[in-house]
Protein backbone atom coordinates (compact mmCIF):
# COMPACT_ATOMS: atom_id res chain seq x y z
CA UNK A 1 0.00 0.00 0.00
CA UNK A 2 1.48 3.31 -1.14
CA UNK A 3 0.87 6.22 1.25
CA UNK A 4 1.98 9.84 1.65
CA UNK A 5 1.92 11.50 5.07
CA UNK A 6 1.51 15.22 5.56
CA UNK A 7 0.44 17.46 8.41
CA UNK A 8 -1.89 20.44 8.39
CA UNK A 9 -1.21 22.75 11.31
CA UNK A 10 0.27 19.77 13.16
CA UNK A 11 -2.64 17.38 12.41
CA UNK A 12 -1.47 14.38 10.32
CA UNK A 13 -3.12 13.09 7.14
CA UNK A 14 -2.17 9.79 5.51
CA UNK A 15 -3.23 9.71 1.85
CA UNK A 16 -3.71 6.13 0.58
CA UNK A 17 -2.81 6.22 -3.10
CA UNK A 18 -3.30 2.51 -3.86
CA UNK A 19 -3.67 -0.85 -2.18
CA UNK A 20 -7.00 -0.10 -0.43
CA UNK A 21 -10.16 -2.23 -0.75
CA UNK A 22 -12.32 -2.13 -3.87
CA UNK A 23 -15.47 -0.29 -2.70
CA UNK A 24 -17.22 -0.42 -6.08
CA UNK A 25 -18.43 2.47 -8.19
CA UNK A 26 -21.66 3.75 -6.53
CA UNK A 27 -22.19 7.10 -4.79
CA UNK A 28 -19.36 7.96 -2.38
CA UNK A 29 -21.75 7.92 0.60
CA UNK A 30 -22.52 4.25 -0.19
CA UNK A 31 -18.84 3.43 -0.62
CA UNK A 32 -18.06 5.15 2.71
CA UNK A 33 -20.80 3.10 4.43
CA UNK A 34 -19.29 -0.07 2.92
CA UNK A 35 -15.83 0.90 4.22
CA UNK A 36 -17.29 1.51 7.71
CA UNK A 37 -19.19 -1.77 7.90
CA UNK A 38 -17.15 -4.27 5.87
CA UNK A 39 -13.54 -3.07 6.11
CA UNK A 40 -13.08 -2.00 9.72
CA UNK A 41 -9.97 -4.20 10.10
CA UNK A 42 -8.42 -2.60 7.03
CA UNK A 43 -8.94 0.97 8.04
CA UNK A 44 -7.89 0.48 11.62
CA UNK A 45 -4.74 -1.39 10.56
CA UNK A 46 -3.57 1.62 8.54
CA UNK A 47 -4.17 4.16 11.27
CA UNK A 48 -3.71 2.45 14.63
CA UNK A 49 -0.35 2.13 16.36
CA UNK A 50 2.22 0.77 15.62
CA UNK A 51 1.72 1.66 11.91
CA UNK A 52 -0.16 4.90 12.51
CA UNK A 53 -0.69 7.22 15.44
CA UNK A 54 -3.70 8.48 17.43
CA UNK A 55 -4.10 11.90 15.81
CA UNK A 56 -3.91 10.62 12.24
CA UNK A 57 -6.76 10.83 9.71
CA UNK A 58 -6.52 8.76 6.52
CA UNK A 59 -7.68 9.84 3.08
CA UNK A 60 -8.53 6.86 0.87
CA UNK A 61 -8.48 7.94 -2.77
CA UNK A 62 -11.33 6.48 -4.85
CA UNK A 63 -12.58 7.18 -8.38
CA UNK A 64 -15.06 10.10 -8.32
CA UNK A 65 -18.61 9.80 -9.70
CA UNK A 66 -18.42 13.41 -10.92
CA UNK A 67 -15.91 13.51 -13.81
CA UNK A 68 -15.09 17.17 -13.11
CA UNK A 69 -13.45 16.16 -9.82
CA UNK A 70 -9.71 15.43 -9.66
CA UNK A 71 -10.41 12.58 -7.23
CA UNK A 72 -12.91 11.11 -4.83
CA UNK A 73 -11.84 10.69 -1.22
CA UNK A 74 -13.14 8.93 1.87
CA UNK A 75 -11.70 10.09 5.20
CA UNK A 76 -11.54 8.02 8.37
CA UNK A 77 -9.94 8.05 11.80
CA UNK A 78 -9.37 5.01 14.02
CA UNK A 79 -12.99 4.98 15.17
CA UNK A 80 -15.17 6.30 12.36
CA UNK A 81 -15.50 6.99 8.66
CA UNK A 82 -15.93 10.78 8.39
CA UNK A 83 -18.29 12.72 6.12
CA UNK A 84 -15.62 15.29 5.31
CA UNK A 85 -12.31 16.45 6.77
CA UNK A 86 -11.00 19.99 6.36
CA UNK A 87 -7.41 19.50 7.48
CA UNK A 88 -7.35 16.28 5.44
CA UNK A 89 -8.50 18.14 2.32
CA UNK A 90 -5.72 20.72 2.75
CA UNK A 91 -3.24 17.85 3.24
CA UNK A 92 -4.66 16.00 0.23
CA UNK A 93 -4.37 19.05 -2.07
CA UNK A 94 -0.74 19.62 -1.00
CA UNK A 95 -0.02 15.91 -1.53
CA UNK A 96 -1.59 15.95 -5.01
CA UNK A 97 0.55 19.01 -5.83
CA UNK A 98 3.65 17.21 -4.48
CA UNK A 99 2.85 14.34 -6.88
CA UNK A 100 2.40 16.75 -9.79
CA UNK A 101 -1.28 15.72 -10.15
CA UNK A 102 -2.61 19.28 -9.63
CA UNK A 103 -1.13 22.74 -10.11
CA UNK A 104 -1.77 26.18 -8.68
CA UNK A 105 -5.46 27.04 -9.17
CA UNK A 106 -8.90 25.66 -8.43
CA UNK A 107 -9.84 21.97 -8.29
CA UNK A 108 -12.89 19.95 -7.27
CA UNK A 109 -12.78 16.97 -4.90
CA UNK A 110 -15.70 14.61 -4.28
CA UNK A 111 -16.42 13.49 -0.70
CA UNK A 112 -19.25 11.38 0.75
CA UNK A 113 -21.11 14.58 1.74
CA UNK A 114 -20.65 16.41 -1.56
CA UNK A 115 -18.15 18.14 -3.80
CA UNK A 116 -15.73 20.59 -2.15
CA UNK A 117 -13.43 23.02 -3.93
CA UNK A 118 -9.74 23.56 -3.22
CA UNK A 119 -7.73 26.56 -4.35
CA UNK A 120 -4.03 25.72 -4.30
CA UNK A 121 -2.60 29.19 -3.60
CA UNK A 122 1.05 28.03 -3.39
CA UNK A 123 2.55 24.54 -2.94
CA UNK A 124 1.68 24.56 0.78
CA UNK A 125 -1.33 26.87 1.11
CA UNK A 126 -4.87 25.80 0.30
CA UNK A 127 -8.30 27.42 0.55
CA UNK A 128 -11.09 24.88 0.97
CA UNK A 129 -14.66 25.82 0.09
CA UNK A 130 -16.67 23.35 2.10
CA UNK A 131 -20.19 21.94 1.72
CA UNK A 132 -23.11 24.03 2.96
CA UNK A 133 -23.01 24.13 6.76
CA UNK A 134 -25.64 25.09 9.33
CA UNK A 135 -26.46 25.51 12.98
CA UNK A 136 -29.18 22.97 13.71
CA UNK A 137 -30.03 23.95 17.34
CA UNK A 138 -28.80 26.60 19.75
CA UNK A 139 -28.58 26.70 23.54
CA UNK A 140 -28.75 22.93 24.12
CA UNK A 141 -27.94 21.96 27.73
CA UNK A 142 -26.73 18.62 28.96
CA UNK A 143 -25.90 17.40 32.48
CA UNK A 144 -22.35 16.06 32.65
CA UNK A 145 -21.32 14.03 35.70
CA UNK A 146 -18.59 15.79 37.66
CA UNK A 147 -18.84 18.92 35.50
CA UNK A 148 -22.43 20.17 35.80
CA UNK A 149 -24.60 21.68 33.08
CA UNK A 150 -22.82 22.29 29.78
CA UNK A 151 -24.60 24.40 27.16
CA UNK A 152 -23.72 24.61 23.49
CA UNK A 153 -24.94 24.69 19.89
CA UNK A 154 -25.46 21.74 17.56
CA UNK A 155 -24.09 22.34 14.08
CA UNK A 156 -23.18 20.56 10.85
CA UNK A 157 -19.99 21.33 8.90
CA UNK A 158 -19.52 18.03 7.01
CA UNK A 159 -19.56 16.17 10.37
CA UNK A 160 -21.81 16.66 13.44
CA UNK A 161 -20.58 19.04 16.17
CA UNK A 162 -21.49 20.23 19.67
CA UNK A 163 -19.92 23.67 20.09
CA UNK A 164 -19.41 25.15 23.55
CA UNK A 165 -18.46 28.82 23.91
CA UNK A 166 -17.26 29.74 26.46
CA UNK A 167 -15.50 26.56 27.54
CA UNK A 168 -16.02 25.46 31.16
CA UNK A 169 -12.22 24.87 31.33
CA UNK A 170 -9.47 27.24 30.10
CA UNK A 171 -8.59 26.29 26.51
CA UNK A 172 -4.82 26.06 26.97
CA UNK A 173 -2.28 23.40 25.96
CA UNK A 174 -1.51 22.70 29.63
CA UNK A 175 -5.14 21.52 30.01
CA UNK A 176 -5.19 19.07 27.07
CA UNK A 177 -5.70 16.05 29.34
CA UNK A 178 -8.60 17.62 31.25
CA UNK A 179 -10.12 19.03 28.05
CA UNK A 180 -10.01 15.52 26.54
CA UNK A 181 -11.68 13.95 29.57
CA UNK A 182 -14.44 16.57 29.82
CA UNK A 183 -15.24 16.67 26.08
CA UNK A 184 -15.47 12.85 26.06
CA UNK A 185 -17.86 13.08 29.04
CA UNK A 186 -19.91 15.71 27.17
CA UNK A 187 -20.16 13.55 24.04
CA UNK A 188 -21.21 10.55 26.14
CA UNK A 189 -23.82 12.65 27.99
CA UNK A 190 -25.24 13.88 24.67
CA UNK A 191 -25.44 10.30 23.38
CA UNK A 192 -27.05 9.08 26.61
CA UNK A 193 -29.64 11.88 26.37
CA UNK A 194 -30.37 10.96 22.74
CA UNK A 195 -29.26 14.42 21.51
CA UNK A 196 -28.20 14.40 17.86
CA UNK A 197 -27.10 17.11 15.48
CA UNK A 198 -30.08 16.26 13.26
CA UNK A 199 -32.14 13.06 12.81
CA UNK A 200 -29.68 10.28 11.94
CA UNK A 201 -26.68 12.58 12.43
CA UNK A 202 -24.91 11.86 15.72
CA UNK A 203 -22.63 14.37 17.43
CA UNK A 204 -19.22 12.87 16.66
CA UNK A 205 -17.06 15.89 17.54
CA UNK A 206 -17.14 18.29 20.54
CA UNK A 207 -15.44 21.70 20.49
CA UNK A 208 -14.68 24.03 23.39
CA UNK A 209 -13.81 27.68 22.65
CA UNK A 210 -11.76 30.12 24.72
CA UNK A 211 -10.00 33.44 24.16
CA UNK A 212 -7.27 33.72 21.50
CA UNK A 213 -3.66 33.83 22.65
CA UNK A 214 -2.47 36.12 19.84
CA UNK A 215 -3.66 39.64 18.91
CA UNK A 216 -4.82 38.49 15.46
CA UNK A 217 -6.74 35.45 16.74
CA UNK A 218 -10.53 35.46 17.07
CA UNK A 219 -10.58 32.52 19.54
CA UNK A 220 -8.70 29.31 20.42
CA UNK A 221 -10.36 25.90 20.22
CA UNK A 222 -10.03 22.37 21.52
CA UNK A 223 -11.58 19.74 19.22
CA UNK A 224 -12.38 16.19 20.31
CA UNK A 225 -12.50 13.71 17.40
CA UNK A 226 -14.54 10.46 17.22
CA UNK A 227 -11.52 8.31 18.21
CA UNK A 228 -10.96 10.49 21.33
CA UNK A 229 -7.81 12.07 19.88
CA UNK A 230 -7.79 15.88 19.82
CA UNK A 231 -7.34 17.81 16.59
CA UNK A 232 -3.95 19.53 16.47
CA UNK A 233 -5.31 21.84 13.75
CA UNK A 234 -8.32 24.16 14.26
CA UNK A 235 -10.48 21.50 12.45
CA UNK A 236 -11.86 22.41 9.04
CA UNK A 237 -15.30 20.85 9.43
CA UNK A 238 -15.47 22.14 13.02
CA UNK A 239 -14.55 25.63 11.82
CA UNK A 240 -17.33 25.31 9.24
CA UNK A 241 -19.83 24.42 11.96
CA UNK A 242 -18.50 27.27 14.11
CA UNK A 243 -18.88 29.77 11.24
CA UNK A 244 -22.49 28.60 10.83
CA UNK A 245 -23.10 29.29 14.55
CA UNK A 246 -21.41 32.71 14.44
CA UNK A 247 -23.40 33.63 11.32
CA UNK A 248 -26.71 32.42 12.80
CA UNK A 249 -26.06 34.40 16.00
CA UNK A 250 -25.21 37.56 14.04
CA UNK A 251 -21.68 37.51 15.52
CA UNK A 252 -19.76 37.46 12.21
CA UNK A 253 -20.72 39.32 9.04
CA UNK A 254 -20.66 37.60 5.66
CA UNK A 255 -17.21 37.94 4.02
CA UNK A 256 -15.37 39.03 7.19
CA UNK A 257 -12.21 36.99 7.71
CA UNK A 258 -11.16 35.74 11.14
CA UNK A 259 -8.16 33.76 12.39
CA UNK A 260 -8.95 30.59 14.30
CA UNK A 261 -6.28 29.22 16.66
CA UNK A 262 -5.98 25.52 17.49
CA UNK A 263 -5.03 24.20 20.91
CA UNK A 264 -1.37 23.98 19.77
CA UNK A 265 -1.45 27.48 18.22
CA UNK A 266 -1.71 26.58 14.53
CA UNK A 267 -4.20 28.72 12.57
CA UNK A 268 -6.79 28.81 9.79
CA UNK A 269 -8.24 31.89 8.12
CA UNK A 270 -12.03 31.58 7.98
CA UNK A 271 -14.94 33.35 6.34
CA UNK A 272 -18.38 32.50 5.03
CA UNK A 273 -20.93 33.41 2.36
CA UNK A 274 -24.63 32.62 2.13
CA UNK A 275 -25.51 29.11 0.92
CA UNK A 276 -28.36 28.25 -1.47
CA UNK A 277 -30.39 26.35 1.16
CA UNK A 278 -30.39 28.70 4.16
CA UNK A 279 -26.98 27.66 5.49
CA UNK A 280 -23.52 29.08 4.88
CA UNK A 281 -20.66 28.15 2.54
CA UNK A 282 -17.46 28.13 4.62
CA UNK A 283 -14.02 29.08 3.37
CA UNK A 284 -11.01 27.68 5.26
CA UNK A 285 -7.41 28.57 4.43
CA UNK A 286 -4.48 26.69 5.94
CA UNK A 287 -1.09 25.18 5.20
CA UNK A 288 0.16 21.61 4.97
CA UNK A 289 3.56 19.99 4.55
CA UNK A 290 4.42 16.57 3.12
CA UNK A 291 6.52 14.52 5.58
CA UNK A 292 6.90 10.98 4.24
CA UNK A 293 6.21 8.69 1.32
CA UNK A 294 6.05 5.01 2.25
CA UNK A 295 4.91 1.50 1.37
CA UNK A 296 2.97 -0.14 4.19
CA UNK A 297 3.66 -3.84 4.71
CA UNK A 298 1.19 -6.25 6.39
CA UNK A 299 3.13 -9.45 7.19
CA UNK A 300 0.81 -12.42 7.84
CA UNK A 301 2.80 -13.56 10.88
CA UNK A 302 2.87 -10.08 12.49
CA UNK A 303 0.73 -10.35 15.66
CA UNK A 304 -0.04 -6.60 15.42
CA UNK A 305 -0.70 -6.63 11.67
CA UNK A 306 -4.16 -5.13 12.31
CA UNK A 307 -2.89 -2.58 14.84
CA UNK A 308 -2.90 -2.57 18.62
CA UNK A 309 -6.51 -3.18 19.65
CA UNK A 310 -6.94 -3.37 23.43
O1 LIG B 1 -10.27 19.17 9.84
O2 LIG B 1 -12.36 18.59 9.53
C1 LIG B 1 -11.26 18.42 10.04
C2 LIG B 1 -11.05 17.27 10.94
C3 LIG B 1 -11.98 16.36 11.35
C4 LIG B 1 -11.31 15.45 12.17
C5 LIG B 1 -10.01 15.85 12.26
N1 LIG B 1 -9.85 16.96 11.49
TrEMBL record:
Q: Which organism is it from?
A: Gemmobacter lutimaris
Q: Which residues form a coiled coil?
A: none
Quote the protein name from its UniProt record.
Hydroxyproline-2-epimerase
Span list, region Disordered: 1-22
Q: What does the record give as the organism's lineage? A: Bacteria, Pseudomonadati, Pseudomonadota, Alphaproteobacteria, Rhodobacterales
Q: Which domain of life is it from?
A: Bacteria
Q: Which family does it belong to?
A: Belongs to the proline racemase family.
Signal peptide start and end residues = none
Q: Extract the PANTHER family matched here.
A: TRANS-3-HYDROXY-L-PROLINE DEHYDRATASE (PTHR33442)
Amino acid sequence: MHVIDSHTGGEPTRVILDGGPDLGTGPLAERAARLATEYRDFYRSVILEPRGQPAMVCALLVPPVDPTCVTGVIYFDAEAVLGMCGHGTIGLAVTLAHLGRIGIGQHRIETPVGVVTVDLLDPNTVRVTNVESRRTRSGVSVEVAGVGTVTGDLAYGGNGFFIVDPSPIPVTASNIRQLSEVTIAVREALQAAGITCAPGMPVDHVIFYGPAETPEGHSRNFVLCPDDAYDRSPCGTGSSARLACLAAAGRLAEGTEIVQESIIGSTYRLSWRKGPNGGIIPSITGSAYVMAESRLIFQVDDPFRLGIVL
